[in-house]
Specification:
With about 575 residues, the protein is mostly helical. It has 26 helices and three strands. The chain has a three-stranded mixed β-sheet. This is Root phototropism protein 2.
Length: about 575
């Protein structure tokens, strides 16, 4: 029931307004012009005098007396048609920067040009555009904003391109020679324009020699105004709650964010670091395209040496700060930076493992501190912890105090880890590169695995034995530890073999009695058999030759051994001979 009432009210309002400026009251209206829900009772001859389009409609109509015309497609709607009708009746009305684009498009639609009638609406609006609207930056921005609802006709009559050219030129002038305070006032006014027009404006400014910082300033302000809920400020604070199921609600924000990222200047130092981090968190939140996130990750990895722990934390948590986001972006950023440094080292002819730049030392310290900040969260698993820590080569860290602090915090926050899991956590640390204070703490730290504690104690013992004030060489100490570990494994293997030998000898001694009995019984049986056997020629010869034994009474003589006596077949004990 609400729609008919609203329609009737708009109809009556339009009729009332029309009656106020239609002077030919003595002549009844002969045509009704319908524009959307509004209707205007007018005179054909007045409309035809200015509009070639209406003239053609009347002439080409199949009805002998056309009484109703539908112009619902006219740019600007009923309000703009009312002004064009006033122009046809010769009634004065005001042309402003807010309605001049719509009037120009309506004049084009109704064919109210000078070719049809001198000094028509088309030329009147063109004069206003040239002399008033496009003479200032603010006026051109307002006109361009009004063109968003007038496409594609506004493009066809060149209003959009003229506005873009004027804004690009005047924005460059303001950036170089500000006429107001604050100097970047023009970036605030640009923030009302559609992102498609912003891209064309920035492209025009770049062609006119605008600096990357100028373009970055415009984009930063535009983002803060149009993505206020996602990028509220550079501190990363926001009142939004994290609800992954509602990400489809941010379809408009996702499209806008992807367009903004595509317009970022290529210069790496043009944009604030935390602004890029906020953009990346917003991209993760609204589930932006992979190309959008990869572009932001690459930009951050290039300048990672200037990124702080707070910047990394912005990308790691939800907007309410209660939950960790997926840390894949953090890993890709660190990995990208390390790959860049590796390529630079190879290009310079150095060894990436031996030569570490100052930027890598700063990044290593930042990453270790970052791990300490997020180590307390229960969803931060060992694989995630090690996955980030191992991205920093061990040779990059001058001392391992920061990574030790992160490990200690992690072990304290996850007390249910077993010995193997704790060793996995500690595998990213070199205990020989701890400072004296850290080694002292580690030697008394009950949360650490025993192996790590022993390493620290061994290191200090070596230092005490050497009696030197300087720390012993870490590589030599590590080599000594490896040798000791190898010897310990060999000793353990020998101990195991000795144990097996003792068990074997014990079993043989237990079976010695039974074996002797079986051997005696076998010998008796053999003797009985030989006694009953007949002597042959070969057996006689064998006995005769046996008497000629040259080793008789020697060490090899075995003729005196009785066959019935059991022989001890155990291995004789080795004796040590010495000359005293």
């Amino acid at each position: 029931m609400a729609t008919p009432v609203r329609s009737n009210s708009r109809l009556s309002l339009a009729m009332e307004r029309t009656g106020q400026w239609v002077f030919s009251q003595d002549i009844p209206a002969d045509v009704v012009v319908a524009v959307c829900e509004a209707s205007f009772s007018l005179h054909k001859f007045m409309l035809v005098s200015k509009s070639n389009y209406i003239r053609k409609l009347i002439l080409e109509s199949k009805e002998p007396d056309l009484a109703r015309i539908n112009l619902s497609d006219i740019p600007g709607g009923p309000d703009i048609f009312e002004k064009t009708a006033k122009f046809c009746y010769g009634v004065n009305f005001e042309i402003t920067v807010h309605n001049v684009a719509a009037l120009r498009c309506a004049a084009e639609y109704l064919q109210m040009t000078d070719m049809y009638c001198d000094n028509n609406l088309s030329s009147r609006t063109e004069d206003f555009l040239a002399q008033v609207a496009l003479s200032s930056l603010s006026g051109a921005i307002i006109v361009l904003k009004s063109c968003e609802d007038l496409l594609p006709l506004a493009e066809d009559v060149k209003i959009v391109q003229r506005c873009v050219d004027v804004i690009s030129l005047k924005a460059c002038n303001e950036a170089n020679f500000p006429s107001r305070t604050p100097p970047n006032w023009w970036t605030e006014e640009l923030s009302i324009i559609d992102i498609e027009f912003i891209g064309r404006i920035l492209s025009g400014m770049r062609k006119r020699g605008a600096k990357a910082l100028t373009l970055a300033s415009a984009l930063t302000t535009y983002t803060e105004r149009n993505l206020r809920d996602l990028v509220r400020d550079h501190s990363g604070r926001c009142t939004m709650s994290y609800n992954p199921g509602d990400c489809d609600m941010y379809a408009r924000e996702r499209e806008l964010l992807q367009s903004i990222v595509s317009l970022l200047p290529s210069e790496k130092a043009a944009l604030p670091i935390n602004f890029l981090c906020c953009l990346l968190r917003a991209a993760i939140f609204v589930k932006a395209s992979n190309s959008c996130k990869n572009e932001l990750e690459k930009r951050i990895s290039v300048i990672l040496e200037h990124v702080t722990v707070d910047n990394l934390l912005v990308m790691s948590f939800t907007y309410d700060g209660e939950k960790l986001l997926d840390l894949d972006s953090i890993r890709r950023i660190i990995s990208g930076f390390m790959e860049k440094e590796k390529n630079m080292a190879v290009f310079s002819g150095g060894d990436f493992k031996e030569t570490c730049s100052a930027a890598m030392h700063r990044v290593a310290k930042t990453v270790d501190s970052y791990l300490g900040e997020i180590a307390t969260y229960p969803e931060f698993t060992i694989s995630k912890f090690n996955g980030i820590a191992i991205l920093v080569p061990k040779g990059t860290r001058k001392v391992d105090d920061d990574i030790y602090r992160a490990i200690d915090i992690y072990l304290k926050a996850h007390p249910n880890l077993d010995e193997i899991e704790r060793e996995k956590v500690c595998s990213v640390m070199d205990p020989l590169k701890l400072s004296y204070e850290a080694r002292l703490h580690a030697s008394q730290n009950k949360r650490l695995p025993v192996q790590i504690v022993l390493h620290t104690l061994y290191y200090d013992q070596l230092k005490l034995r050497s009696g030197a004030d300087d720390q012993p060489d870490a590589a030599a100490t590590r080599s000594g530890l490896q040798c000791d570990a190898s010897l310990a494994r060999e000793n353990e293997a020998l101990r195991s073999e000795l144990t097996k030998m003792k068990l074997h000898i014990s079993d043989m001694q237990k079976n010695k009695g039974s074996s002797a009995k079986r051997i005696s019984a076998g010998a008796a049986a053999a003797a009985a058999t030989s006694g009953s056997r007949k002597h042959t020629f070969f057996s006689s010869m064998s006995k005769t030759l046996g008497k000629l034994n040259p080793f008789k009474h020697g060490s090899k003589d075995t003729s005196h051994i009785d066959d019935n006596i059991a022989v001890d077949i155990t291995k004789p004990r080795r004796r040590r001979f010495s000359i005293s």
